[in-house]
Structures are given as structure tokens and as C-alpha cells.
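[agent] plan:
  1. take the single chain provided in the ticket
  2. run structure prediction with default settings
  3. attach C-alpha cells to the ticket
  4. add a short note for the reviewer (M.T.)
[agent] executing step 1
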Amino acid sequence: MKCVVLMVVALMALTARGVEEPPQPPAPVSLAVAGDLDAALVERVRMWAAVQLALPVPLDSPLSLDGAPTSLDEVARAAAARLSPESLGVVVLFAGEQPVAHHGIYNPELRVAVVNVRLMAEGADEETFARRLERQVIRGICSLMGLELSPNPESAMAAYSSMEELDQIARNLDPPWLIRLQERALELGIPLDPDSPYNMFRDFTEE
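[agent] step 2 finished; step 3 output follows
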């Protein structure tokens, strides 16, 4: 009788394990806006990142801030406060009315990267401004997904020390860094765009 009871208990345990739902993949890095920024420009920047990285880049609702932040850290904390536990993080385009130091920040503990839109606009025409934002959003997404700076001086993840240098680096990733990013996404269960020409794991045998 004891043997039968044990077998039944073991069978119930196996059945329970069998119906357990698999763990859900994390939510991909998203984009959010804090402040007044042209919607068409935001969509251009979002789409650039999504196409170039072959990753989903959802747009969050606008980030509301109390008062005028005096630092990018304040913006990062406000963005972190509304992040869901399963989110990989958010890149915030901060268009503040008052000047704030630094081009941007990346805080891995908060899972937030902030781009200082006001500084990106300084001395730039419309196209240069948009391209600066495109670079910075890709840098933010890659940083939040664990990529370090690239030694390739033409990569979007190359180190820079001035606005002039930022304007010279590419707006997309060098192939080795793109492969590393997409490997990371696949490890996490985040799907790559199967139709993207920048999907480094795309099956070309059917073409």
C-alpha cells in the first residue's frame, strides 16, 4: 500500500511540473520621452533603432516629471520608478526646458539610460540633431543589454569625448557588436525581426 501511495504522489508531482508554464522572456528595452519633443522625430529615432538592431523597440507613454529636474539622475530615478520587474530597461529622451549637464547617463542598477536632448540640439541643424539622437538611443539600448564600448572607432558604440567625435561615429553597430547584441537577445528569448537585413541570424537559405 505504501508503495502505491508513493507512486501516486510521484505521478502527481510529475504532472504538476508538466503543467508549469515556461518562464516568460523579459520585456525588451523601450523608449520614452520626457518633455516636449516632436512625435515624428521620436518615431524616426525609434524605427532607426528597431531596424538597425532587428529588435523590438516599444514606445512607452510619456514620462511625467515633477518640476524641472536639475540632473539626469533625477530623470533616471523617475523612469525607474515605473519600470516593471520584467523590463530590461528604458531609454529616456529628456527634453528639459532648463540646461542640464552631460550628454546622457546610463545607470545599470536602475535599468535606465537618459539622453540629454537639449544638448544634442546645440549647434545642430535638423538632420544632425536627429542623427545624434539615433546614435544615442542605440548606445542606450546596447548598454542596457550588457554591451560595452566597441574598439571599432566607426561603431555607434565607440567611445567619444566631444560632440564633433559623436558626429563622426556610425549610427549603427559594427558586425561583431551586432552579433553579440542579437546573441544576447536570443538568450533572453527576445525575438529578432526575421525580415530585417540586419538580422545576423537570419536564414538566407530560403531566399
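[agent] step 4 note for reviewer: Residues 30-188 form a domain with the Collagenase (Catalytic Domain) fold (CATH 3.40.390.10).
[agent] ticket updated
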